[in-house]
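This part of the workshop introduces the protein records we will be handling. An example says more than a description, so a record of this kind follows:
>
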Amino acid sequence: MEASEACSSHSSSLDAHNECPYREKKSNINPCTLMPHPEILNATSIDGISSPLSKGLSTERESSTIPKVTAPGHVDETWKYPSPRMFYHALLRKGYATDPQDIDSMLFIHNQLNEGVWKHILEWENFMQPNATGRCQPLLKSFQGRPQKLSPKAWFAHKFLGADKPFDRHDWVIERCGKKVRYVIDYYENGVDQSGSPTMNVCVRPALDSIESIFYRFRRFLDS
């Protein structure tokens, strides 16, 4: 575990609410997530291909604890996790053949990982805003899966230290006091625990997009 990079182990990608403030009405793709809109993923077919196995999957969605940037008139909203049917269709779109009976457990792990990621982001935000009186509440604006693009840290560790590549990468953009801040999340497989459940390492840190982020990453490295 690297405290400086907020890497932690979790035992075994949020989907946008229907009211994404940046929704393009003429597009099937949600600009907040770069994924199809929820009503498309909740249908009984995807991309014109019928998926009868998904008909028994629930379309109910669970609310996360992650606050979101909302459209005018919407307050105190949080992101919603995909329904089991949406999650199944998202996996089909990515080319993963998945048994529908496994979806509930997979979705539970997915949701818990996202909650853990947000907890790490809040730790970074508290570290960068130590004054609680003037601290702004961070809101998640958007996110994107980038599994084919290695982060600089992951590339260096793989190229020069022989470390395994992460199996997935996400970029989350938060809004803090009206300012956009990008976070990079690398996901690593970490074997199984004593009960046989898969475990994963999640490394969360602000992207090196600004002098501020570089300063605080270096400072946290020194503090670790």
